[in-house]
Amino acid sequence: MRIEPLRRKHIRRCVEIERALFPGDSPWSAGAFHAELDSGAYYLAAIDDEGELRGYAGLAVTGVPGDWETGVHTIGVEKARQGQGIGTALLEALLTRADALNAPVLLEVRTDNDNAIRLYERYGFTRLGIRKRYYQPSGADAFTMRRPATQTQGVAG
């Protein structure tokens, strides 16, 4: 598995994965992925040895030099490949980018997504609060989580 910049040629596969992962919560459209790439956000693809996209992740960067802030917009790994370290590799790559900017990282995660919450906590994220009915149309709640700027890369604890 290799991590590389997400390209427009990957978007159709991203949309397929989105639909499988988030059927009840308005999965991202091709237009949404194109808009993210157009905005200059930092997007990555996890590509297997056969050249197939198996996951993707995106980090928005806002602010000015010396006062950056970042936000994880998405991490998605196809269901059949979950639990194989792909999501972890994508998260580590996003955090490396945030660390290079000395920027804190924010994200939202479904309150019932225990695997993702544990992953984020291992990488130094803490819960700031809850956003009621954040995911639509399901109405699922989300935790807002934050990781301070520049931490040592690696798993806490």
Brief overview, please?
The protein is α+β, with helices and mostly antiparallel strands and 157 residues long.
Could you characterize the architecture of this molecule?
By secondary structure, the chain is of the alpha+beta class. It has a domain at 2-106: Aminopeptidase (3-Layer(aba) Sandwich), CATH 3.40.630. Helix content is 29%, strand content 36%. It contains 4 helices and 7 strands, in the order E-H-H-E-E-E-H-E-H-E-E. The chain has helices at 11-21, 30-39, 86-100, 114-122; strands at residues 2-5, 42-47, 53-64, 67-77, 105-110, 126-135, 140-147. It has a 7-stranded mixed beta sheet, with helices on both faces. The longest helix is centred in the middle third of the chain and has 15 residues, at 86-100. The radius of gyration is 15 Å and the shape is globular.
Short descriptors:
157 residues, alpha+beta, Aminopeptidase, seven-stranded mixed β-sheet, 4 helices, 29% helix, globular, disordered C terminus
